[in-house]
Design a protein that fits this description.
- The chain has a domain at 415-455.
- The chain is 34% helix and 21% strand.
- It has twelve helices and 20 strands.
- The strands form five sheets. It has a six-stranded mixed beta sheet, covered by helices on one side. Strands 1-12-11-10 form a four-stranded mixed beta sheet, with no helix packed on it. The chain has a four-stranded mixed beta sheet with strand order 6-7-5-15.
- Strand 11 (218-221) and strand 12 form a beta hairpin.
- Helix 2 packs parallel to helix 7 and helix 2 (36-48) packs parallel to helix 10.
């Protein structure tokens, strides 16, 4: 099966936008990767300086990777916690980073409106259910943390059981956290609309052109080289496939399923009437949304990391993970048990060693980058692209002074340590959920893993 998002694209957004790079060429800015990061960089560069020659180079087609396959959360989630950012930088800069994430959600929606992109957006926020007493305490602790950084009820709220059930009709709901800072979107509609706009305004897009090397001033492919004084790496989960970057980001797979459209009675029981994106407070991440055409699109991070940072089409599909997702979805919403699963898919996301996303520009080499979004990429990639455009055009803005700008993450360990460590972490969180369900006590293993990951 293809992804739900690809299968439901309108015909005009499936038309080819680029061609293969067949000969040496030049540009003012070369962007490797035609997903959200690269395309938003091009979009804001065109706004800042329409005279710039911009060329994007993509191994497959625009939006092929996570940008076209994700859960459709345009959220204010940043992978590093405010505590972790404060520890590394400062409290004020951590708060500024979060406000920038809030702003980026609204900016995505604003641009979509003014450009006339129909991305099926609904800013219903995110509701994260607490379904055990341990999860309730974790939810309350999370809200206490937000309060300690000065964020009030209008940004992050704890909902009691009754208020939570008004938003989400999942089983065993004892409470929830809620934030309005998220919009459900159709991710492939966004990335393909963005790509079409950027190309229509003069950017060159070279598709089906895998990059063999990326160095200062030059991007090399089998059929031609692209030279530019500024080279942007916007490859996220595929970064490990570029020579010299294998240990920069670990590609970890996230998989999804989608149901057929559900009837009105079923939706009355499930809720999500404002198309809230949803999850719960378990340790192993799950995520879902009510789509514009009335389906449940649901995913999770249960897939293993593959040895040697392997990225392959067969990793997009794992029948055992799809079965686990279906069981979890039915556990949340038993009324869905009679529905059919029409689509099942997956893809890699990029995880830095310290779980801290970054973007930046090294003026001495002309190399720029943005990535390490740990699955929170719809919003963070937009902020990254907008910030890169400002850095490249030498603008001094509040965004270019954020703590993630020019942040340097340590490299991942070599194999087999990387394989053992990443998968041990994934197993630890699964076992933590199992232990909490069995004992009713917060998992020490999960607290230990949180400290290890910089939480």
């Amino acid at each position: 099966m293809t992804s739900l998002w690809e299968a439901t694209l309108p015909a005009h957004l499936t038309e080819p936008l680029g061609q293969r790079l067949e000969a040496d060429t030049q540009a003012d800015v070369a962007i490797v990767g035609a997903g959200y990061t690269g395309l938003w960089t091009a979009y804001y560069l065109q706004q800042a300086d329409p005279s710039l020659s911009i060329a994007l180079i993509e191994a497959e087609h625009a939006g092929f990777g996570a940008s076209g396959r994700n859960g459709g959360w345009a959220s204010a989630l940043f992978p590093a916690s405010l505590t972790a950012i404060t520890r590394r930088y400062s409290r004020d800069r951590a708060i500024a980073q979060q406000h920038a994430m809030h702003d980026t959600v609204d900016e995505i929606l604003r641009v979509s409106r003014i450009e006339g992109w129909d991305i099926h957006a609904a800013k219903g926020g995110t509701v994260v259910a607490a379904r055990t007493p341990v999860q309730v305490q974790r939810a309350k602790d999370e809200i206490d943390s937000w309060r300690s950084f000065g964020f009030g009820e209008s940004d992050y709220a704890f909902l009691d059981a009754d208020a939570a059930r008004e938003r989400i009709g999942a089983t065993d709901v004892l409470g929830a956290t809620y934030t309005p800072h998220c919009a459900a979107i159709h991710p492939a509609r966004l990335v393909r609309s963005l790509a079409a706009t950027v190309v229509a305004r003069g950017a060159r897009l070279f598709e089906n052109s895998p990059v063999r090397s990326l160095e200062p001033g030059i991007v090399t492919t089998d059929r031609g080289n692209l030279r530019a004084p500024i080279v942007v790496r916007a490859t996220e989960g595929y970064t490990a496939s570029i020579p010299g970057y294998r240990r920069s980001l670990a590609p970890v797979y996230s998989l999804m399923i989608a149901t057929a459209p559900l009837d009105a009675d079923t939706w009355t029981g499930i809720g999500l009437s404002e198309r809230e994106t949803f999850a719960d407070h378990r340790h192993v991440i799950i995520y879902g949304q009510r789509t514009a055409d009335g389906r449940l699109a649901f995913g999770g991070r249960g897939a293993p990391y593959h040895f040697g940072s392997s990225i392959a089409p067969e990793h997009d599909r794992d029948s055992s993970v799809f079965a686990d997702l279906w069981r979890t979805l039915i556990d949340l919403f038993p009324a869905v048990s009679g529905a059919s699963v029409t689509h099942a898919w997956g893809g890699p996301l990029g995880i830095p060693r310290d779980w801290f996303a970054s973007c930046g520009l090294d003026r001495s080499t002309g190399l720029a980058w943005s990535g390490g979004y740990v699955g929170d990429g719809v919003g963070t990639s937009h902020l990254g692209g907008r910030t890169l455009a400002e850095l490249i055009t030498e603008q001094d803005t509040s965004r270019t002074r954020l703590p993630w700008v020019n942040h340097t993450s340590p490299r991942w360990e070599p194999e087999p340590l990387r394989w053992a460590g990443v998968n041990a972490g994934l197993r630890a969180m699964t076992r933590a959920d199992e232990a909490e369900s069995r004992t009713g006590a917060a998992s020490r293993r999960a607290r230990w893993m949180s400290r290890l990951l910089g939480g």
